[in-house]
Every structure is written in structure tokens, then in C-alpha cells.
Design goal:
The chain is built from 14 helices and no strands. By secondary structure, it is mostly helical. Helix 1 runs parallel beside helix 13 and helix 6 crosses helix 9.
């Protein structure tokens, strides 16, 4: 796969992932967060295991280990995310979670004892300022502060997930990694849900339709194929492309859920879109010159 193809794949992946915030929040009106994660990811694992059964049977130890690692990390991230978006707007939650775009280059710089590229840091800082404007819109609502804290914790773990995905995908089968990852996430969520005594299934046809959408689009496609795209891109670039995820969630929140628009929200959206556009035009050129 070429670098440009990997970029296009990741863009599609993050658009798909961005749709999950609104549907998850609606489903939480009738199901517990861990029940949704358990059913969603176990169904996605079953579907992909059938489609790629021959490939999965040939899964080597490196790919299996990578899937387990990502499954553990993403379960923590998704748990923070689910409990966070119960308390704040889905679009705002998605944007705050993507503080990962600034955390990834910082983490990478610490690990390699080097400085991230200037354009990467500038784009990340602009995006985080945008996140700050979005946080203002939620801090005055009931439990909004707690929701923001939970989403910030999701951002911290999401940054680790992005870096771990690059690391485990480098010399392994990314498709098998993605499938194993889904199985691990579903199994852990199921144990947690049963342990808390709140496991349940959708009760209406409408809920089942939303759940099936979560299974097929954000999970089967989004989660399973992120490692495929990241295999050919540095973690810093993948982190900036993730901005498409919250933008999708924000648009759906406004158009579908009627979450509304304010001056602060508008400024936040503009800053984040600007940071993405600048990186995609200037940041990628910097990457290519160093290759």
C-alpha cells in the first residue's frame, strides 16, 4: 500500500469512527456503557472472524500479541469515552478526546529524546486551543466538568493507543491485529458488564439498528482497518488525521441530535479545521522531505 492510499484509508476510518459517538450516546438511554461495548465488539469480532477465517487461523504470535495489547489499551480508552460522552455533547467530547494530536508528538519526542517538527507542534497547539473553546461550552452544565475530565483521560490513553498501533503493526499482520483487538475488547467489556450486574441487550428494533450500524461501520471497518493504514504512516501524522473523527461527530451532533452551535463552539471548530488543513498541506510535505 502506498503512503497516499494509507492516508485515504485512515481518513475513511476516522470518518467511520466519528459516527459512533452519537449512536453510542443514544444507545446508552437503554443500555449500560459496558454492555454496548461488549455486544458491539463481540459481534464485530464474529463477523470479521468468519470473513477472514483462513487468515485468522494463520495468525502468528506477533500479530496475536499486538491485538491483545491494543485490545487492552482501547478498552480503557473506550470506557473513559463512553462514560464521558454521557455527560457532555458528543461533538465536544470527540474533539476533546483528540487532544491526542498534541500528546502523540510530545510522547514521541520524550521517547526518542528529540524535538517534534515545528509544523506538527504548531498545528497541535492550534487544535488544543480549539479544544479549550469547546470545553467552555460544557463546563457550566451539570456534571460537565466530570465529563470533560473523563474525556481528557480518554485522550491520554488514545495517544498511547495511536503510538502502540504503529509499534505493533510494523512487523505483523495488521488485519489479524485488528480482529484480535476487537475480540479482546468485547471479552473484557462483557466480563466488566456481567461483573457490575448491568449486562443487557437492545430492547427495540430501533436500538438494534443503531447497534448494528456501530458493529458494521465504526467497528468492523473503523477499528479493524486502522492498523492497516497506520502500518505505512508515522504516528504523528496519524494523530493529526484523527481530527476528522471529532469533526464527523460534531457535524452529526449538530445536524442530527440538535446539540446547537455557539460562538465558542464555532471558534473551536474553525481552529481545529485550520490545524488539520495546515498539517495536511505543510506537515505532509515536511514528512516527505525527510523520507
Amino acid at each position: 500500500m502506498s503512503v497516499n492510499s494509507a492516508r485515504l484509508l485512515l481518513i475513511a476510518v476516522f470518518v467511520a469512527r466519528g459516527t459512533s459517538f452519537l449512536f453510542s450516546k443514544v444507545l446508552m438511554e437503554g443500555m449500560s456503557p459496558m454492555s454496548i461495548l461488549a455486544v458491539r465488539f463481540l459481534m464485530a469480532f464474529a463477523i470479521l472472524a468468519v470473513i477472514f477465517h483462513r487468515r485468522l487461523l494463520a495468525c502468528d504470535r506477533r500479530s496475536f500479541r499486538g491485538g491483545v495489547i491494543l485490545g487492552l489499551l482501547y478498552t480503557v480508552c473506550m470506557t473513559f469515552e463512553m462514560y464521558g460522552i454521557r455527560l457532555i455533547d458528543t461533538g465536544v467530547g470527540a474533539l476533546i478526546e483528540n487532544m491526542a494530536i498534541v500528546l502523540v508528538p510530545i510522547f514521541a519526542a520524550v521517547m526518542t529524546r528529540s524535538l517534534p517538527r515545528a509544523v506538527t507542534m504548531f498545528c497541535a497547539v492550534v487544535a488544543v486551543v480549539g479544544v479549550g473553546f469547546l470545553s467552555i461550552t460544557q463546563s457550566q452544565s451539570e456534571n460537565g466538568g466530570l465529563g470533560i475530565v473523563l474525556i481528557i483521560l480518554a485522550a491520554l490513553t488514545y495517544a498511547v493507543c495511536i503510538m502502540a498501533t504503529e509499534a505493533v503493526s510494523r512487523d505483523a499482520d495488521p488485519v489479524n491485529i485488528g480482529i484480535v483487538q476487537l475480540g479482546v475488547m468485547g471479552a473484557i467489556s462483557l466480563v466488566a458488564s456481567v461483573g457490575m450486574g448491568d449486562f443487557g441487550l437492545p430492547q427495540t428494533g430501533h436500538q438494534w439498528i443503531m447497534l448494528l450500524f456501530l458493529v458494521l461501520i465504526p467497528s468492523c471497518f473503523g477499528f479493524a482497518f486502522q492498523p492497516v493504514g497506520q502500518k505505512y504512516l508515522p504516528a504523528e501524522e496519524a494523530a493529526v488525521i484523527t481530527v476528522i473523527n471529532p469533526l464527523t461527530a460534531s457535524i452529526m451532533g449538530i445536524l442530527v441530535a440538535g446539540e446547537g452551535m455557539s460562538i465558542s463552539k464555532g471558534i473551536g471548530y474553525v481552529l481545529i479545521i485550520f490545524s488539520l488543513a495546515l498539517y495536511m498541506t505543510r506537515g505532509q510535505s515536511a514528512v516527505e522531505k525527510t523520507e
